[in-house]
Design a protein that fits this description.
single chain; 2 domains; 205 residues; mainly alpha
Length: 205
Amino acid sequence: MNASPQVLRRFIILMALLTFGMFTFWMVYGSYLESPEGDYEVREGDILLGDRKYNEAIERFDVALEKSPNHRGAMMGKAIALLQSERFEEAEAEFTRLIAFLSENVVPDDQTGIAVLAGAYANRGILRDRAGRYEDALADYAQSLKIDEEAVAGPDVIQKILYGRPRPATVRKRAEYLIKQFQLPESERLMRVPELDADQRMHKP
């Protein structure tokens, strides 16, 4: 007995939906299985970091580091969370450890790793800047720009609109400002402009 066109049509639609569903399932499942150890916890930490829940973020990054001790995303995330929590000594140690690890292990064709290294120098520069260690900060900014200026160039047009900062602070702008101040007599230097410096953002490629 031949199936009616309506039944055949429903059967084809059902099979198409099932095929799509299974394809989606295996894509998500495969992606989860292939993710490096600690990636899931880093994504959780990044969300908490964006919500300014720094202690909770540090906890997730620590779990990631237990699973993968050299996970650069976890190391960077933890360092940023420590800095934003004003735990400056711990943050600087974490940035320095990340810089040392990446300097020894990043290969020339690892663009993400190079961007993370540039970001680590930029973030450590911001930390030292906030601590009034301006020469050290400038050295870090210069190294960051030398490694990968594009990675620390600042937010794109969409981010500028979303966050309402049409001319945000960037690593290059801050470095140029410090250089100009160092060229002045010490009594005439203005090393900090709080309303502008507050716009400095962390870099997490």
